[in-house]
Amino acid sequence: MIDVLVIGGGNAALCAALMAREAGASVVLLEAAPREWRGGNSMHTRNLRCMHDAPQDVLVDAYPEEEFWQDLLKVTGGATDEKLARLVIRASSTCRPWMRRHGVRFQPSLSGALHTARTNAFFMGGGKALVNAYYRSAEALGVRIRYDARVERLQLRDGRFVAAWVGDERIEARSCVLAAGGFESNREWLRDAWGRNAAGEWPADNFIIRGTRFNTGTLLRFMKDADADMIGDPTQAHMVAIDARAPLYDGGICTRIDCVSLGVVVNRDAERFYDEGEDFWPKRYAIWGRLVAQQSGQVAYSIIDAKAVGRFMPPVFPGTKAESLPQLARALGLDEARFMRTMNAYNDACRPGSFNHTVLDDCTTAGLAPPKTHWARPIDTPPFFGYALRPGVTFTYLGLKVDETAAVRFGGEPSANLFVAGEMMAGNVLGKGYTAGVGMSIGTAFGRIAGTQAARAALEERRHAAA
User: Fold this and answer.
1) How far is CA 331 from CA 71, 131, 264, 344, in A?
2) Can you give the pLDDT at residue 253?
3) pLDDT of residue 284
4) Which end of the chain is more exposed for a tag (fewer CB within 10 A), N or C?
5) What is the pLDDT of residues 11-34, one digit of tens each?
6) Is pLDDT of 112 > 60?
7) Superfamily for 2-182+217-235+397-466?
8) Does domain 238-392 have CATH number 3.40.50.2000?
9) Burial bucket for residue 311 (CB in 10 Å: 0-12, 13-18, 19+)
10) Where is the FAD-dependent oxidoreductase 2 FAD-binding domain (predicted)?
11) C-alpha gyration radius of the chain
């Protein structure tokens, strides 16, 4: 019989499989995707948020535990389990040597990746290289990997894992790790969660899925129906404002529009609706998808002028270009008079300051609602550019409630042999909001914990059976 069955194929699943195998357990990993699409959302990642008390190879200065915690507390608005969050934070300081042993390489913060040289360790070759390195290491260690192996249901008995089904095939194991992602690719579930807005629209119909098409939430739904303890709001997600021209699935990071803090954002009615300069972009980029989702038609427009060009990661698609603001309004299909009222009000409200996009500068607006708190400069230098935005969902936060052992819980009682990691439990740490790289921190920390615990449970059962 298999010792540890890992269901999923991304970062958390691979960390679990590697740890379980290193602990001496036999391991089978079931990846729902075909080999060429393996890796889940992890293949679209770039970096890992890391605590460190002093400069470390690719990380500059220091990023101590308390600052990491305060950053997380701020973006979640307190919707986080402090004990589990601090577990993740501390684990992020020690995981990189282990990652290197499994073939992951790091590089300094990329040009255009603002404000992350101190906080985030970037993967050389990106998430795809990380995923490939882990798969190579897993295969070398003897982990058996099966692709196109979608698990539809489990057999559970009194809170214990017994078996999983791939189609009509029943697969038994002494313990199991669930790491099969959220439900972001399940349009029906998204519609159920978001419902209709006041205008009678179904907002979810206009969502674009930044990540994998294979995260349909099948196992999450099964576990919910099996009365596993759940946590999180099904409408909360890592949701980013991305280019409206992005593909429906797997657009990844290159579809993100990163010039928001350098200009203004207006909705379909040509009105601003949020402070574009509230905080550094890595701490705020993931709120903008939800903000756009709340606008009429789930569309918005990021507006910049020539002064912003070259100061942000260039998007994959060129923006709509115009030599005047009225011309830009017409090109974007916005009401010209309303647009000009909005732009003139913003430009008039900008106060002189010392512009510096690397700090929370003193360039702000006065008497404007909503304000622009930092990096507010008049948009007055042609050419002008506009980017149409749509909500881009990376992963959902509804998940399974856990403790520090990563055990799935039923009625408050932890399972003895069923564990969970990654997006299926990220809502314990991320009730809402996001800060760059923390999803990989959660997946790495709890993937390693889940794999270790699953191996311990399986090997103990094996010993009892042999006694």
Assistant:
1) 39, 41, 17, 18
2) 87
3) 85
4) C
5) 999 999 999 999 999 999 999 999
6) no
7) FAD/NAD(P)-binding domain (3.50.50.60)
8) no
9) middle
10) 3-429
11) 23
